[in-house]
Amino acid sequence: MSRLFLFLAALAAVIGMGAALRAVRSGATRGTEPRIGARGPDVVATTSFIADLARNVGGERVRVTALMGPGVDPHLFKASEGDVTRLGEADLTLYGGLHLEGRMSEVLERLSERGVPCVAVTSGVPPGRLIRSGPGGTPDPHVWHDVSLWMEAARTVRDALSRVDPAGADGYATRCEAYLAELARLDAEARDRLRAVPRERRVLVTAHDAFAYFGRAYDVEVRGIQGISTVAEAGVRDIREVADLIARRRIPAIFVESSVSPRVIESLQAAVQARGFEVAIGEALLSDALGDPGTQEGTYVGMIRHNVAAILRGLRPGGEDP
Q: What is the fold, at CATH topology level, of the domain defined by 195-319?
């Protein structure tokens, strides 16, 4: 019985993240010999938008599984026994990195140490373009909300697929270039459309601070009630400060997120009303996960377009969507 089989069997028997981590620490190391051949690689992606990226670059040559579906918050996600097994069996695991998958990060690192190819799609983003916060300069992981940075992630996925599957490298390069051209058009489109919102009203208020990259890229002021991770709770002071801002500047809408409880935004709306101003709750934005498969919002390109359109309808005078 191979050492790899013993390793995977031990992982499959684990239930819960703590036990999974103990199993990974004691597991065997996978060999580095080519295992794919003509069939193409099996890829596991932690989130739906990373899975979409892998499908665009990999095409029909790759088989992609996403651990997290629509509406799942990656900050709080806890891998199941089956998830750990899939990670151990994959030819390549793609994850966000920068502590996006907070409760999974150490398991992914241990798998990588044991020879399971694990690549953070944000690893190709230049450090100088990362947004950092807090006294320790913690990097914000939500880079996909800046389309130009997601283009760097596409190149990282291309290179990762080519390393594990050299026979498919030409195809990965061709599909990546086509997708990069599509993303460049999307980036310009988002910037042009958001200029329709007057600057004084171009303020995006959401439950947690997931849109800092979006704001920097598209000239939108962003205020999140919680921090960059939903693990942190919003305090009364946070809500009071944002409510004062909304009432003072008469911002017409605030936004819930598809993967975050609406309670914080509903509390904020009530606090604004108590200050004598009526603020609407706009359409749900897609922050940490794509929409349902088979819908426009179920793709990365569709997610960006949905968010831009929702923001326009909420903040533009008259709610027009040009």
A: Rossmann fold (3.40.50)
